[in-house]
Amino acid sequence: MTTLVLKSSILGEYSQSNQLIDAALAGKSNLIERDLAINPIPVLDMNVATALRSNGDDLAPELKAILDLSNQLIDELKAADQIIIAAPMYNFMVPTQLKNWFDIIARAGVTFTYTENGPVGLIENKKVTVVTTRGGMHKDSPRNSIESYVSTMLGFIGITDVNYVYAEALNMGDEPAQTSRDQALKELVELI
Fold first, then answer.
1. For the whole model, what pTM was predicted?
2. Is 53 annotated as a binding residue?
3. Domain range holding 33?
4. Phi-psi category of 42—alpha, beta or left, where left has phi over 0 and alpha has psi -120 to 50?
5. Which of 10, 41, 137, 168 could form a disulfide with 100 if both were Cys (CB 3.0 to 4.6 A apart)?
6. Has residue 48 been placed in a domain?
7. Can you tell me which residues bind FMN (predicted)?
8. How high does pLDDT run on average in the chain?
């Protein structure tokens, strides 16, 4: 089984989401790991949009590089049997780094298509586990926009088997933080 791991924390080795994923995957093989903070994806702008709408012919080299990156990311996604996404909460949303990944892999005719009944995702039979960490308590509240956003984006490209692992209260004292981390790690190991 091939596992695609997408890390998006800007905190490197101090990242709670990265630490949880690393602990759960210790000793596992067949991993495709992409740290979106260390190797950032271009922010969606006119150049990126132009490259993503092209078939690659007659693109300037900088735009061809964007299209090639998109193709590589989509190939990684297609090659994976399961995907683990680190989605720490920054200001009530996913990190920009993770949104940039979604922006560059959401391509009409490649990962989704438009039909007379609406959009249909083209990426199927993938299991996704989202590890979301946050300093406070936001699960089951209107402030928890991460689950809605990530599920919408994944569903748009055809992925509907999505589970969430929450590590909350990480800035609310040592004991609640440790309890939350321990529970999240247990859940993550069970899911993967």
1. 0.92
2. no
3. 3-41+81-191
4. beta
5. 41
6. no
7. 9, 15-17, 89-92, 133-136
8. 93
